[in-house]
């Protein structure tokens, strides 16, 4: 039996348990982390009425007619409030971000004035009440919610937190992830390559994929297994106790050396899901044991990459307590530059590149599950339904990689 993509996603996310552990991190360490607390503003933004322009603070009544002249009686730069006041017929020189002096209700831009004598300006436009003044609290009110649990923290969120004087935030603890590669044919980069052997590209790829989702501080351990069932069972039993997520590539298909499913069961993993109706990535395997989730990804690098993007990415966010794990992948729309056809009976994830100037979407090279270079040239994935066809010019949704 093969599972549909949607059913597999649903089953996996239902089995992945969000962590209960939290930690407090500085704002410098919080980018991309999942928030675990609700926070409200204690400081309004802006905190005081201030000028949106370099110019002159005036009374709109005094500056209601072009050609009026005003006497400049002081200067208020951005920074500490000088507590200046204007009277009838007066103006005060102000700069962007400067507090508005008492008695002023408008700012005239510097470009709309000219000096007519020492300390006297003439305005060339009429000033409207409130013009070019940023009123206190118009961006953010005291007590307004600024952070909800389950939010993935982005630079703008961190800026708002900093604006409140907040220097640390409570986030989900990072999961402990193990990357396991399998196969007698794989050797680490830098080692001598013998006939019939391949360099292990899945290990660095999967590690970097994890960290691209959760951040570079994510603890990732690396392991490699030969095609030995006993060694596989032993390592999986060990990782079941020490890790939250295990990403294992290879050994999940139907060959005589594909023994991961049996070893996983012997190591205490259960509730298995195997084979998904998709291309590439059909042999995907998933099982869990208590608090640990095991993903058996196909050994071909493109298949491993695609199944990570479609299934593992959202599971990592669920593990970290994200509010909407299925909605956190990034998508971009574009128009196909050429026809794409899927003659197979499984949905096909085509690797594509998006032209930065035209927005056109082009497939990248051979679409085989081993075509690693074509994957490296891709910006994202386009899914074509089984026995489907997308004509050139069709607008498509690209899941960014």
What would you say about this model in short?
The protein has 401 residues and is α+β, with helices and mostly antiparallel strands.
List keywords for this structure.
401 residues, alpha+beta, six-stranded mixed β-sheet, 7 helices, elongated
Structure write-up:
- A six-stranded mixed β-sheet has the order 7-4-6-5-9-8, with no helix packed on it. Strands 16-13-17-20-19-18 form a six-stranded mixed β-sheet, sandwiched between helices.
- It contains seven helices and 27 strands.
- 38% of the residues are buried.
- It is elongated and about 95 Å long.
- The chain is an alpha+beta fold.
- A hairpin with a 2-residue loop joins strand 19 and strand 20.
- Helix content is 19%, strand content 29%.
**N- and C-termini, Cα separation:** 29 Å
Major beta sheet, specifics?
A: 6 strands, mixed
Radius of gyration, in Å, reads 30 Å
- Give the number of helices: 7
Residues in helix, %:
10-25%
Q: Order of strands side by side in the largest beta sheet? A: 7-4-6-5-9-8
- Please state roughly what percent of the residues sit in beta strands, choosing from under 5%, 5-15%, 15-25%, 25-35%, 35-45% or over 45%: 25-35%
Low-confidence stretches: none
Provide the residue-averaged pLDDT. 95
Q: What structural category characterises the helix and strand content?
A: alpha+beta
What global shape is seen? elongated
Strand runs, count:
27
